[in-house]
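R.M. (postdoc): so does anyone remember the format we settled on? I'll just put the structure tokens first.
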């Protein structure tokens, strides 16, 4: 459920008309709903009710400071994967003890930054990283709390580019090697081994892979405890999918996911962490774009928008589906025609949808891409020298620009000319 609904024939974000925002900021732009962000965060929080837990929002999904503050004020922790994300989380007021640091390639600088600034735990992904972390901690005279990410070798049944829990993926250490790696970690004086981490992929629409992975984690917890490790925290990753197409069956709800956690791990007395990103931010955001032209091709029509693959890369990169709806509600029973929906970038890949059934639209009309709040703005670029598009946050009847569109001048002036030119 989200808060983007038609009212009297016009699309609203909470109590603000999309057309009004478009008038104020120009198109294309992203718009997020505070109520939806908070609702999704609370669904996860409630799903783990009764178990000691922390929901660490995977801020890679949408790391705008205003989004982070909204969630942090509601009690969210953060899952960060870079020094930049760590500093963004801190800047949004998240204390170090609510930040977990994930990622396969943490540098010495990033590790030191987090050790100095305070960190809940590092989710370590390899032996070489463990050694570097130990050295950095010792150099600072501190101990680094760690979990080790295990790769449970389960098939998350999602798009190949966002599956992470198979042995062929670069993530974590093979679960079969875990005892050996935990032994090594326990011998390093700069590390404090406190738990296990697992994350099997993103946009999961089935709970079975979670169940399989978490059963393996439960077994591993007992084994490691019998080896003398103090396993008290389990970080279960993120990945729960969202309904991208209204027409498809809805993926499982956070409540059902919470039940899987309880069933598989509830008996262990561990503190639970989860790292959802997409389910919190995805359906809390739209990308709004204007029709520039309707072009008659050979045997097909093209809807050419002012938004492009540089603004929302998911269709080009993952063949992802986004529902695209007109901002003015089509009349009941309005005729629908198949049309290719494309952007102005000079690549055939700049195609949002092929032969999508749409009501009649013409130049100047606005359309909304649904489910664009996660991995939208954060993955955008200035390809074709198209300035990054603005982000807007709505709360009830108020809206605010939370990242302004740079001017062409600002974009160009970021480059510098060498003295020899
Ligand atoms: N934790 C870890 C360690 C992760 O790598 C990820 C996502 C998450 C949590 C959050 O997963 P979520 O709940 O958002 O599914 N750009 C892609 C998605 C990449 C996901 C990467 N890791 C997309 O647009 O579909």
């Amino acid at each position: 459920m989200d808060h983007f609904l038609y009212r009297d024939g016009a699309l609203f974000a909470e109590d603000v008309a999309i057309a009004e925002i478009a008038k104020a900021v120009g198109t294309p732009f992203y718009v997020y709903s505070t109520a939806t962000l908070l609702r999704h965060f609370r669904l996860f929080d409630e799903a783990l009710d009764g178990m000691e837990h922390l929901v660490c929002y995977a801020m890679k999904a949408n790391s705008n400071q205003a989004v982070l503050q909204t969630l942090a004020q509601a009690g969210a922790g953060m899952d960060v994967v870079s020094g930049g994300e760590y500093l963004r989380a801190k800047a949004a007021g998240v204390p170090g003890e609510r930040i977990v640091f994930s990622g396969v390639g943490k540098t010495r600088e990033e590790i030191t930054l987090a050790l100095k600034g305070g960190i809940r735990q590092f989710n370590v992904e390899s032996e070489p990283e463990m050694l570097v972390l130990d050295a950095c901690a010792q150099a600072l005279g501190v101990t680094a709390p760690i979990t080790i990410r295990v790769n449970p070798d389960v098939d998350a049944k999602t798009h190949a580019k966002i599956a992470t829990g198979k042995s062929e993926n670069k993530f974590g250490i093979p679960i079969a090697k875990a005892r050996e790696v935990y032994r090594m970690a326990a011998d390093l004086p700069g590390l404090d081994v406190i738990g296990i981490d697992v994350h099997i992929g993103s946009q999961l629409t089935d709970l079975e892979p979670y169940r399989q992975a978490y059963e393996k984690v439960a077994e591993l917890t007992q084994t490691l405890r019998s080896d003398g490790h103090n396993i008290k925290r389990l970080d279960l990753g993120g990945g729960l999918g969202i309904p991208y197409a209204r027409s498809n069956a809805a993926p499982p709800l956070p409540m059902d996911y919470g039940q899987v956690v309880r069933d598989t791990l509830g008996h262990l007395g561990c503190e639970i962490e989860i790292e959802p990103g997409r389910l919190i931010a995805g359906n809390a955001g739209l990308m709004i774009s204007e029709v520039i032209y309707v072009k008659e091709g050979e045997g097909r029509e093209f809807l050419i928008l002012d938004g492009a693959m540089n603004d929302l890369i998911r269709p080009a990169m993952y063949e992802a589906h986004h529902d695209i709806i007109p901002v003015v509600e089509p009349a009941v029973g309005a005729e629908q025609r198949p049309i290719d929906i494309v952007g102005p970038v000079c690549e055939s890949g700049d195609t949002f949808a092929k032969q999508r059934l749409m009501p009649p639209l013409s130049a100047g009309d606005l359309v909304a891409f649904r489910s664009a709040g996660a991995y939208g703005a954060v993955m955008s670029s200035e390809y074709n020298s198209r300035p990054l598009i603005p982000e807007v946050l709505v709360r009830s009847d108020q809206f605010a620009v939370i990242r302004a569109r740079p001017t062409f001048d600002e974009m160009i002036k970021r480059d510098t000319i060498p003295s020899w030119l």
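R.M.: ...and that's the designed sequence above, right after the tokens. Also worth knowing: The mean pLDDT is 96. DSSP finds twelve helices and 21 strands in the chain.
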